[in-house]
Amino acid sequence: MTDLLSRLRRLPQKIRVGVIGVGNIGRGLVYQISTTPGMECVAIADIHLECAAAWSARLGREYDIVETQVGMLAAIEGGSLPVCGDGNLVAQCEMVDVLVDSTSSITSGSLFALHAIAHHKHVVMMNSEADLIFGPYLLKQAEREGVVYTSADGDQHTVLKRLINEIELWGFKPVLAGNMKGYLDRYSNPTDIVPEAEKRFMDPKMCASYTDGTKLCIEMALIGNSIGGRTLVPGMLGPRVKDIYDVFQYFDFHTLWDGNNPLVDYVQGAYPSGGVFVVGFNDHPHQKETLGWYPCRLGPGPYYVFHRPYHLGHIEGMACIAEAYLDGWPVLQPTCGFMTNVYAYAKKDLHQGDVLDGIGGYSAYGLIENCADNQSHPGLPICLAEDVILRRDIRKDEKILLEDIAYELSDPRFETFWLACQS
Q1: Residue 125 in contact with residue 97, Cβ under 8 Å?
Q2: Angle value at C-alpha 294, between 179 and 305, nearest 5 degrees
Q3: Which of 13, 19, 229, 266 could form a Cys-Cys staple with 179, CB 3.0–4.6 A?
C-alpha cells in the first residue's frame, strides 16, 4: 500500500467531485479539489448563482449555467464546469462520484445527502449542523446503499478523530477529546459581530455561532457521537488555561473518567486557539519510563496530552474524499448514535409567540448535553430551533424544551430527526 498522494497520482481516471454550497468554505473546497492530483470538481451549485459563476471564472474554469440534468451532463462531457442553483442536480448527477455538502442549510443539506446516497454516491459533510442532527439516519441510508457517509476533514471533530486513531494505534486509551477556543460570548448576535465577520469574509450569523459557543458544542457532539463520548456538565467545563498542559490542574482524570467512555470538553485561552488536544491513558511502566525521559513534555502519566496546534478547513478536506472513494473508509461517523446533542438556551428573555431564529441568531445559543439526561423532558435541539414558535415565556439562559414550541409533526425536519433517533 503506497501513500495516499501516490495513489491519487496514479489513478487512471480522476475522482469526480460535486460541491454544493460555494460560500467561504465551499470556494476553498472547489479550489483545493482543482489542485489535488487525481481529483476534479465536475459540478457546483449554490443558491447565489452569480457568486458560484464568479468563483468559477476566478479559478480560470470555463463554465455553463445549467438548469437540467441534460444540460449538466452536456457541460461535463464538453469539458465545461456546470454551475446551477439547485443542489439536487449535482446530488443526482450520474457523472459525480463523491458529493461534498458545504451549505449552511440544515434541511437542504440532509436532502442533498439523501439524494446523493440514493444515486449511489459517497457523501462528505462539511455541513456540521445537518451532520449532527440527521447524521445517524443518513449513515443508516448510506450503509443500506453501500456507500460512504463521513464528516469532512479539516474541522475540529475530524482532526480530533485522526488524533484519537493515532494514539489508539500507539496503545493509549482516549480519555478526553478537547477543543481549544480563544474567545466565548454566549450572547453574541449577528449585529454585534459584523466587524469580526467582515474581517473573516463570513456571514454574520455563522460568525455569531462560532462566538457564542454553539458551533463548538456541535463539533464536540459530533466527536462524542463517534467515539461514545460524554460531557461532564451541560456546555462542558471549558476552563481558562495559559498552557495546554495546565489541563491536569483543572481535570482530575482519576475521578472524572470512568475508565471506558471518553469525555468531551474544551479549554479557553491556551495558545494557539484553533488547535485540538486528546488526553490519553497508558499505565505500563515501560511507557511511563520512556515518556519520562523523552524531551517532549506530554504530562505526568499515566495521563498524557497529545495536541495539534491547528485545523485548516478546506485545505485538509481532500483526504476523506480520497479515502471514501478509494477505500470505502470514513474518517468520522456517528457510529454510536445520539450519545450527545446540542440543545437551545435563551440568549435573552423570550416571549410566547416569538419565532426562534436558529443557530447564531438573536434568540438562542446551544449547549452540548448527554442525551441520556434528556429523557423525561427533552430539550429542543438547537439545529431545529428555527422558524418554530414559542408556546410560553422563556427567561434568559433558560433551557428551551421540545414541549415549549409549536411545530407540525409532518415538518420534514422533525420527521427526519425522529428517524435519526431510531437509527
Answers
A1: no
A2: 15
A3: 266
Architecture label for domain 340-422:
Alpha-Beta Complex (3.90)
Mean pLDDT of the region 238-256: 95
Query: From the centroid of its chain, how far is CA 302?
Result: 31
Using alpha carbons, list the distances in angstroms from residue 139 to 228, 320, 326, 329.
16, 16, 19, 13
CB 112 within 8 A of CB 134: no
Q: What is the pLDDT of residues 370-400, one digit of tens each?
A: 999 998 899 999 999 999 999 999 999 999 9
- The 10 Å Cβ neighbour count of residue 34 is 15
Q: How confident is the model at residue 230 (pLDDT cuts 50, 70, 90)?
A: very high
Backbone phi, psi, residue 7, to 5°: -65, -40
Q: Which grid cell is 39? A: 481529483
- Residue 49 is predicted with a pLDDT of 96
In 3D, which of 360, 163, 370 has the Cα closest to residue 276?
Answer: 163
Question: Mean pLDDT throughout 231-245?
Answer: 96
- Per-domain residue ranges for the chain? 4-126, 156-313, 340-422
User: For residue 200, is pLDDT > 90?
Assistant: no
| Average pLDDT value over all residues in the chain | 96
Contact between residue 143 and residue 235 where contact means Cβ atoms under 8 Å apart: no
Give the residue from 361, 362, 363 showing the smallest Cα distance to 404.
363
Contacts of 144 (CB under 8 A, 6+ apart): none
What pLDDT score was predicted for residue 98? 98
Classify 4-126 by CATH class.
alpha beta
Whole-angstrom distance, CA of residue 52 vs CA of residue 3:
33
Query: Which among 34, 45, 37, 41 is positioned nearest to 16, based on CA atoms?
Result: 41
Evaluate whether 229 touches 177 at the Cβ level (below 8 Å). yes
CB neighbour list of residue 60: distance below 8 Å, 6 or more residues apart: none
- CA distance linking residue 18 with residue 39, whole number of Å: 11
Beta-bridge mates of residue 84: 45
For the chain, how far is it from start to end, CA to CA, in angstroms? 34
The closest alpha carbon to 229, from 263, 254, 258, belongs to: 263
| Closest to 75 measured CA to CA, from 46, 112, 44 | 44
> Is 66 in a helix, a strand, or coil?
coil
| DSSP-assigned letter for residue 194 | H
For the stretch 209-222, pLDDT in tens is: 999 999 999 999 99
Q: Beta-carbon neighbour count of residue 407 at 10 Å?
A: 15
